[in-house]
Amino acid sequence: MRLIKTTLCVSIMLALSACGEKETVESHINSAKTYIDANQVNESIISLKNAIRLDSKNAQARFLLGEIYLQLGDGPAAVKELERSKKLGSNNKHLIPLLARAYLLTESDNDVIALSEAATQLASEQQSHYLAYQTLSALRLENTELAKESVTTAQNIAAQSMYSMLANAYLQLSENNNEEAKTLVDRVLAIDSKQVDALMLQGQIATVMKDYKQASDSYEQYLALQPRSGIIKLLLADSLLKAEKYVEAEKYADAILASISTQPFAHYIKAMVKFEDKDFAKSSEHAESALAADFNQMNLKLVAGASAFYLKNWEQATYHLRSVVKYLPKDHLANRMLAVSQLELGLVSDISDTLDGFTDVDSPAANADFLASVSFKLLELGAVNEAKKLVVQSESLNSDNAEVNARQGILKLMMNDPSGIDDLKDAVKLDPELVEAELALAFAALQSGDIDQAKSIATSWQEKYPEKAGGSNLMASIAIQQEQYDEAERLLEQSLQLEPDNLFALTQQLRIARQQNNEELSHSRADYIITVYPANTHVLKLYFSAYRNDAALEKLIAAYKLDSEDINKVTLLAEAYLSLGKDKEAESVLNTIENQKNLPKRYWQLVVLIAKQQQDLDQMLVALEKWQQANPYHLEPVVLLADLYAKQRNYDRALITVKRGLEQHQDNLILQLVNMQLLLNANKLLEAKEQYKVLAVKDIDANLKDGMQGRIFLLEKNFVQAVPKLESFYKAYSNTQNAFYLAGAYISNNEGEKALSLLEDYLAANPDDIRVKATLAGLYLENESSKEKAISYYADIVQQQPKDVIINNNLAWLYLEKGNVEQGLKHAKTAFDLAPNVPNVADTYGQALLKSGDKAAALKFSGQAMELAQGKDADIALNYVEILMANGHPNKAEEVLDTVVVKTKQQEKRKLMLSTQL
């Protein structure tokens, strides 16, 4: 302890004695020079700052301090001190070239050029020094003429000066004369191995020549000499990254970010390093930070997109990859990533463009496999046209590859293209051992009914692979199709001996038992297969189908709980709930996956079915709208939505729905026909005629075309031409609606008897058709001799539809005219109870009450009818006058009668009669 105290005291005494000495500017500058010679940088800076504190206008101190900062690579600080030294009149011969270099470090190229006049007064060595920097500034300003002039001047002044060579090296590099530039730099470094500008240029030349090890070495030497340089750390990190020295590169990036957390280039380095480490979350984070700072290098966007892809962030992946793939070869992995991302987002229409030209003859099988997987996905989404485009594209791959042909064939068969069989045959020829192709060909032949072809393959298979079950299974499938169940059972037993408990054989055994309605055997086989494959979705479906009860449902619930993310198990369970009448449970289980993307068609079908069974029309509309939005390539929601809107007579909404569908399926005949039907129903004549031009050239039934033309003629009121077209249409497609079209055309063409005959014949063939019966009854009303028939038809209808307002109202009038007041009053009251705010219904009820003798009640309801009709219906008004008279109100009756405006001769006759009575 005493020793420490003594030493401390000595130190304090020395310090106090030193403070007592008078320090001058000169002494500080001299101390600084001593420190500089001893390479004690910090001490020299302190001494010079002390000198400046004593004399802020000391040009020498400013120059020396600026020179030190420049040697450290601190451009801004060097500029500050050297500019002040220049303003203070420093005559140091090195000031102009050093200030020029300081400007270069701060990218102030115009300021470098501005020193050119002052540089002309310098000695040749210092002038050539300056001219090297002027050359680089001129090149950075794209002033090539000035750069060449600077090099020429430098060479004329001192051809062998290292700065003249440096100036020429800058020029040679700008002209892509890399070897010449490298040679000049090597010569400079041979003169002075620590010449920092030459080391920087050496690193840049090495980078251009892709010699990243040399670049890293040069930059490391530069950094050692200029430790405060910010840019050199970035360049060094980049060269280390390109040299695949990721750990070292990351070290410099981390050092930069520790000082400047937003430095984009450092984030770029980190993104690249983390991507190589497969740390895609960090890679994405740093890439996004760099891009946010407008560091928009293509390879950074590529890494950002690829990182997002591996993180399954499809939106970000698509955003970044879309901007870079156009600059990449078509077989680059990024194109696959973009296609998959677009697929996941449902951007189906973009996929064929992304993969356009995606062919690599060096690896046809791999590319065919990728194109096939995308095509399969497109088919699942219902985007058949887009899938076909990829199939056509994959045909350009090497056709001598068996796997390519096999996948091509399977895809074509899935799209109902029979030429797929030819592709499968080619695949088998190229590689007879390609099992997948041979089996696919066999089952395709079986599906198309070519039993001989299927048997030939099955027999060949049995001969080639006697130890495998495939041949027996295939022969069994043929036997099942031909309903040779005993033979099928024998073959399946043979299959199970070769490969015990193989799934195909067990499921086919269960299939046979069910096709033969053998319930006991079905249950036995279902019980066995579920023990062998308790989690297999297909087996679970077969098991439930065999039992269809709560006990079987429990098996499905147990499998679902083990894998609740499996969409197939979710839809299977929901389907089972529905089949047992458990709508709420089905809805609940479907809700667990409602937010997943690319939900299968079966999910949406079940959602719509639940709404239908619950008779919730609004929910059904919502479900269909969501379905179409989620997957615009499915036709089903388009057709169902259009039908629902059409039933509501909301034809505009129905047409909009079909238009959305046609955007994805321009050539789909079903949608075109639906569109035509809606246009006709909505009386949109011009649009219907345009649509017919499209359909007229299609290969569709001529009678169907006649029906369209006939309806167009109806809208045009061209009944003469409409009749024969609609007759042809009705003969081919006899249904209620088409009967009405033709009957309407007959009536409008003054052929009423034909209309009656047509509807009577139709009703004879379809006696339960209420619509036709009601229409006929309405037509019979116009003829006194036929009113009994009308009463008979209305009476039949009211038995089936007791709450039909129109039928009850018309039947009441007929009974009243016939004198059957009791029946007339009964049906009039029923109609009024159902629709009290309909003027004609209230009027009928009033008339029935009058005829029944209840004049007061008749006046009440007749007055109500008058108010509802607002006095605009002459018949209602005349009935009201009659009831007013019956109730002893002649003045009021006369007042109302004067306001009645008659339109028919019968109304005029009745008005005159009532006037006479008054």
Automatic annotation (TrEMBL):
Keywords: Repeat, TPR repeat. TPR repeats lie at residues 59-92, 196-229, 469-502. SUPFAM superfamilies: TPR-like. Pfam families: TPR_11, TPR_16, TPR_19, TPR_7. InterPro entries: CellSynth/LPSAsmb/PSIAsmb (IPR051012), PEP-CTERM_TPR_PrsT (IPR014266), TPR-like_helical_dom_sf (IPR011990), TPR_rpt (IPR019734). The keyword Repeat applies. This is PEP-CTERM system TPR-repeat protein PrsT. It comes from Colwellia asteriadis.
